[in-house]
Design a protein that fits this description.
single chain, 459 residues, mainly alpha, 3-stranded antiparallel sheet, two-stranded antiparallel ribbon, 58% helix
Length: 459
């Protein structure tokens, strides 16, 4: 049996811009590891109380945990500390965005079909573990913003029927807020990064074993060219992360102050990649039911169940589609989204569902900025959450069918050029060019043949 990496130098790889998202995710992970190693040198994962006497005057004299004290000292007293913190944070956002786009690319181009179903699960696992690493990481500074996030998490756990209180007790090591940092720190620093590294390695092995699916008539590159481009892309990703860290402030914990269970943050929302969870909580109706003598709040349980089901459908889509279509053949060519209108429509419907929840997380800010009623805005989002996905499915399907009809017309009549010529009999026709002739514009590019609509050559 040939090994996945056998004869690697002789292989060719597809060369398309949409295939770069996976590499960008890995290079962002490298930046995360490098900056994270620096941060662990100065960070103290402890909730024991100290009095801050550092450089930042507005917080001087306030009691806070050693976790926040070490974060502030890293920010203001260590040369380059603020830059490293912000590079670490921006690299996280780049990684989440790249994995999300990579997952969307696989979905809309059918890159998840046999024999690459495991590749899809690996990418989905990367997304979920990255979200977990982000959640644990944002809780480590122990400021008001992270404390508020933990309070929301505790509320969600407590709302889980029968086992919620036990889950909260285990997570926080007692009653909230407990010592959650001692549990999150090893997860964030050791466990989750190792899992991410293993998933990246598994994805690379699977990609080499099955080779990367490619578009028909797509360009390819050799292993040497791919390596050179990879080095250049890493330099670009590192440069973007460093420039963003140096010029754009993110997560200014010094403005929030130490965590306090009695205090909540104002003007601070969840990270964009977790906003859909917050939006689902805002849109859920305040229903309650009594079951076996216990009051169950559907205002928390329902959105958690819906979001969990949504993620489960995303993870299992390759198997769901295969079961529905009965297609168990191996596929090594990608499809354009228009070639499968139903799948594309379902994907856009899912994106619409996610986008409504995501936008609802900022309903308070939208209401203030546009002078709208908060209740009216939430009701509008609730209606859009129900009506939006089916409408998106219908419209997307119609657009794909229209594009297919356009392709059929081009294949039959050729590509319009806008040039009108007079025929010998006195009539006028537009010059068309054969669709099968590849010119400088790609597969449907312009060749030299000039074809009129009735199939005759223009003179």
């Amino acid at each position: 049996m040939q090994r996945p990496w056998g004869n690697l130098r002789a292989r060719v790889f597809p060369d398309h811009w949409s295939l770069l998202f996976g590499q960008i995710a890995f290079y962002s992970f490298v930046m995360l590891v490098v900056s994270g190693v620096v941060l662990t040198v100065y960070y103290e994962p402890s909730v024991s109380q100290v009095v801050y006497d550092g450089t930042y005057a507005p917080l001087r004299g306030l009691p806070m945990s050693r976790a926040l004290d070490s974060t502030l000292r890293l920010t203001f007293d260590v040369r380059g500390g603020l830059l490293v913190r912000q590079v670490h944070h921006w690299s996280t956002l780049l990684m989440v965005a790249a994995i999300t786009l990579h997952l969307l690319r696989l979905f809309f181009s059918s890159g998840f079909r046999r024999p690459r179903r495991l590749n899809w699960l690996v990418v989905f696992g990367l997304l979920v573990i990255t979200l977990g690493a982000s959640l644990t990481g944002t809780s480590l500074p122990d400021d008001v913003a992270s404390g508020t996030s933990l309070a929301v998490l505790d509320g969600v756990l407590q709302a889980t029927p029968f086992v919620g209180s036990a889950l909260s007790y285990v997570l926080f090591g007692g009653e909230f807020p407990g010592d959650v940092i001692s549990r999150f720190y090893p997860l964030h620093v050791i466990v989750l990064p190792v899992v991410l590294l293993l998933l990246f390695a598994a994805g690379a092995v699977l990609a080499l074993k099955h080779e990367t699916a490619r578009f028909a008539n797509g360009q390819t590159k050799t292993a040497k060219v791919a390596a050179v481009k990879g080095v250049g892309l890493f330099a670009f990703v590192a440069s973007v992360a460093i420039v963003m860290g140096a010029t754009a402030t993110i997560n200014p914990v010094w403005l929030y102050g130490p965590a306090d269970p009695a205090a909540v943050s104002a003007g601070v929302g969840p990270a964009w990649y977790l906003a859909f969870l917050d939006g689902s909580l805002r849109l859920a109706p305040g229903w309650e039911v009594v079951w076996w003598g216990k009051t169950i709040s559907l205002a928390v349980l329902l959105p958690v169940a819906v979001c969990t089901l949504f993620l489960a459908l995303v993870a299992g889509w390759p198997f769901i589609e295969e079961r529905l279509t009965g297609d168990k053949k191996d596929h090594h060519l990608l499809e354009r989204p228009r070639d499968n209108p139903i799948r594309t429509g379902i994907g856009v419907a899912g994106m619409t569902f996610y986008s409504v929840l995501w936008a609802a997380a900022g309903a308070d800010t939208i209401a203030v900025q546009f002078h709208l009623s908060m209740n009216t805005l939430l009701h509008a989002f609730q209606v859009l959450l129900v009506v939006g996905p089916p409408a998106a499915l219908f419209l997307t399907r119609r657009i794909c069918l229209g594009l297919q009809q356009s392709d059929a017309d081009i294949a039959q009549h050729g590509i319009e050029t806008g040039r009108i010529v007079r025929r010998p009999d006195g009539g006028y026709v537009e010059i068309h060019r054969a669709s099968h002739e590849v010119g400088s514009f790609g597969a449907l590019g312009v060749g030299d043949a000039r074809v009129v609509p009735d199939g005759g050559r223009a003179r």
